[in-house]
Automatic annotation (TrEMBL):
NCBIfam families: PRK09542.1 (NF007088). Residues 392-467 form the Alpha-D-phosphohexomutase C-terminal domain. Residues 10-126, 165-266, 276-384 form the Alpha-D-phosphohexomutase alpha/beta/alpha domain. GO terms for biological process: carbohydrate metabolic process. Gene3D superfamilies: Alpha-D-Glucose-1,6-Bisphosphate, subunit A, domain 3, Alpha-D-phosphohexomutase, C-terminal domain. InterPro entries: A-D-PHexomutase_a/b/a-I, A-D-PHexomutase_a/b/a-I/II/III, A-D-PHexomutase_a/b/a-II, A-D-PHexomutase_a/b/a-III, A-D-PHexomutase_C, A-D-PHexomutase_C_sf, Alpha-D-phosphohexomutase_SF. Belongs to the phosphohexose mutase family. GO terms for molecular function: intramolecular phosphotransferase activity; metal ion binding. This is Phosphomannomutase. Its cofactor is Mg(2+). Pfam families: PGM_PMM_I (PF02878), PGM_PMM_II (PF02879), PGM_PMM_III (PF02880), PGM_PMM_IV (PF00408). Keywords: Isomerase, Magnesium, Metal-binding, Phosphoprotein. It comes from the Bacteria. It comes from Ornithinimicrobium humiphilum.
Length: 474
């Protein structure tokens, strides 16, 4: 019997685990075979496209996964080093199912897999990932893959480089030429943005001066973890923006599918503000193309700022709220044929990018919005965020259900109403308005708190009260 328990590494919408304790070549091969059987073959796929990030274990794991796919009689196109949105581009442009080997922002000891159907359509717990997990576990428990080998020829592996095609496609969606010159500091965090940013933004024909930070691909993350959600990982970028007198700064996570923004003052621009700004642009583009605004849908995660649905409504479009997580957002976007989607975690999704998330396309939108007018980013962003937010605060608790119940009981005493779309969101209307969300992490043993209000004093009072209840502090 295999000592590996795939329930520990197969999460709600991707796969994450320690290498080699939880994820090694044997596990990757079983997952490749299971993915072929559960997803690719039943949907009539002829092949699967596989890419990987810069982590030391990624090439071996990607090859092992490919071997499992090939053993099932399907072809594999290996695109080598790429960002996660580069893999989505490959899946969309080649019309093939895909697998991206990355652990995103997790520390160096981790790796993982993000899976998609052709056209970058999601594979999550409710759309095939649980079945992939169970079949791969069955294979591992029997020590081999011979039971799933298909009669006839095995599949073939080919290699190709799609970086130039990916860059050209993104640049075709947002044209920066003719805008005012901008100086941009980019912190790649030694992740895949060190490969993709030069290809998309650094070609010399755009009005951009790129100041690079940590562009060397290094999966040990020698300077800081590639997780811009953690404030200390943005310190170097903030300092460099001020040092170079830059117009803005961009920070990417390890697989470069998320982008965070710093304004000219070195202040972080809230991802909800970016969501509202890009939504405004995408709605306006649809209207300019002759579409009625009321027919345009924009999807947003359950815990973005109220400013997001308010911006969408002000533009005359329709806001659709959904659970946090890329597989959920993508599925709801496709259902509503939404033009754009955004989350508080700085994932930005685009209809024109196969409903998938891409940090660089969001960056292009912000650069265009900034470059087509004369105001600094701080002023531009101020028009999209009038509320005060806590940011996401994590707590490790012994009983998340009991902790949530204590916070809910207190909020209901204050007249707040509960919503359980994603964890629990308690909203109290009136003067001042406030809401908070408590949501268990899908990838880590944490309870996540977000608070927003009309004013800072109220936000801090609600934040501190809920944290005491969650952590059982006196």
């Amino acid at each position: 019997m295999s000592p590996v328990n795939l329930s520990d590494v197969v999460k709600a919408y991707d796969i994450r685990g320690l290498v080699p304790e939880q994820l090694d070549a044997r596990v990757a091969r079983a997952l490749g075979s299971a993915f072929a059987q559960v997803v690719a073959l039943p949907e009539g796929e002829e092949g699967v496209v596989v890419g990987h990030d810069m982590r030391e274990s990624s090439p071996e794991l990607a090859r092992a996964f490919a071997a499992g796919v090939v053993g099932s009689g399907l072809d594999v196109t290996m695109i080598g080093l790429c960002s996660t949105d580069g893999l989505y581009h490959a899946s969309g442009s080649l019309d093939r199912a895909g697998a991206m080997f990355t652990a995103s922002h997790n520390p160096a000891g981790y790796n993982g897999i993000k899976l998609c159907r052709r056209g970058a359509r999601p594979v999550g717990q409710d759309s095939g990932l649980a079945e992939v997990r169970d079949l791969a576990q069955w294979l591992l428990d029997r020590g081999g893959l011979h039971d799933l080998r298909q009669p006839g020829r095995p599949g073939q592996i080919t290699e190709t480089d799609l970086l130039a095609d990916y860059a050209a496609y993104l640049r075709s969606l947002v044209d920066l030429r003719g805008h005012r010159p901008l100086r941009v500091v980019v912190d790649a965090g030694n992740g895949m943005a060190g490969l993709t940013v030069p290809a998309v933004l650094g070609t010399g024909d755009l009005p951009l001066e790129i100041v690079p930070l940590y562009f060397e691909l290094d999966g040990t993350f020698p300077h800081h973890e590639a997780n811009p959600l953690v404030p200390e990982n943005l310190v170097d970028l903030q300092a460099a923006v001020l040092e170079h007198g830059a117009d803005l700064g961009l920070a990417f996570d390890g697989d470069a599918d998320r982008c965070f923004f710093v304004d000219e003052r070195g202040e972080v621009v809230d991802p909800s503000t970016v969501t509202a700004l890009v939504a405004d642009r995408e709605i306006a583009k649809e209207v300019a193309d002759g579409r009625d605004a009321g027919e345009v849908a924009v999807v947003h995660g359950a815990i973005v700022s109220r400013a997001v649905p308010e911006t969408i409504a002000r533009a005359g479009a329709r806001a659709v709220r959904t659970r946090v997580g890329h597989s959920f957002v993508k599925a709801v976007m496709a259902e509503h044929e939404a033009v754009f989607g955004g989350e508080h975690s700085a994932h930005y999704y685009f209809r024109d990018f196969w409903y998938a998330d891409t940090g660089l396309l969001a960056a292009l939108h912000v650069l265009a919005a900034l470059g087509e007018q004369d105001r600094p980013l701080s002023e531009l962003a101020s028009g999209y965020g009038r509320y005060v937010a806590s940011g996401e605060i994590n707590s490790t608790v012994a009983d998340a259900g009991a902790a949530t119940a204590r916070a809910r009981a207190w909020a209901e005493e204050q007249g707040a109403v509960a919503d359980t779309l994603d964890g629990i969101t308690m909203t109290r209307e009136g003067e001042p308005m406030w809401w908070f969300s408590l949501r268990p992490s899908n990838t880590e043993p944490l309870l996540r708190l977000n608070v927003e209000s009309d004013d800072r004093a109220t936000m801090e009072e609600v934040r501190d009260t809920v944290l005491r209840l969650v952590r059982q502090e006196s």
